[in-house]
Amino acid sequence: MSNTPDKRQVRSEAERLSAAFAARGADRFEADILFPAEVLLDLYGEDIRARAYVTSDPAQGEMMMRPDFTVPVVQYHMAGDGSPACYTYAGEVFRKQEDHPDRPSEYMQVGYELFGGADAAAADADVFAVFVEELEPLNLRAATGDIGILIAMVSHLQVSAERRAALMRHIWRPARFNALVKRFAGITPVPASRVSLLEQADPMAQAGPMIGLRGEHEIATRIAALRADADEPKMSSEEVALIAAVLSVSETCPNALARLHDIGVDMPGILPALERFEARCAALARRGVDVDRLRFEASYGRTSMEYYDGFVFGFYAEARPDLPPVVTGGRYDALTHRLGNGHEIPAVGGVVRPDLTLILGGAA
To answer: What's the predicted TM-score (pTM) here?
Structure first.
């Protein structure tokens, strides 16, 4: 990345942005750099190891260097009384960059997070508009999506609970999700090795010594689940077509909403999510956002951290396609429930990269 600002400059820019968010009423939040790996592993499974740095502490056990601030800020807020609140923070995050080795694995984030508010659409619009207003000089392109529509789509498919759970788990992994849809629909065959396994009357009869952490009971349970899945009827071609239609929507917000309503005639399960989308568009318009030109992509946000479950957004520098998103954010209500010991509160927020705002501001 050319003309990369030094750390002193980035810290100064981070403080400027965080101060701007604080001036809007956000409280300052500080998070530890290291926190127990168990938290992220429970949330996202072993996949998180491919993105985060893991270390071992002799007293505290396995620890992770924070890959972002959302989990610690949610933990902090949910440990309190759960009242509506707004936070800002600034600090380093640490992520492996196997897919983009040219990008830094340590960089600064500045965040703005809003907890509470009875009107989710208004809260979504407020957070989005704050980033629009603070970054207006950079002339960034905004992209939006809604993971809630995809969750609603999967929730109402005419498939078994097990297949629905598998699809839900992989909403954030597009390639795996598409592969599952094709297999459940019979478009791609079951792997030959699995067919051979399932055809054996007793697959454990000729098994060698048990190696690894899985016991015989776990293996037998997994084989039974695979056999049950093999007996499932195929997903209908109509549902496969509807899934493809939803995921292919990429229009301005009004046109996307109209297209999704057309699809909703045959997939009524997504209609409540579309009502929330429509309410958000109205709230954005009230905040001065040009919704008629704002882009909506149904698949947007599917490769982000899995905690987003509603509105998602990002801001990009069109003149610098080599740069990652300058801003990313979205709604994560379900995360507050998972970390809130049975309590939950609506939550939406976003983060900005101060190193990128410096690069783009210097090029302006």
So the answer is: 0.86
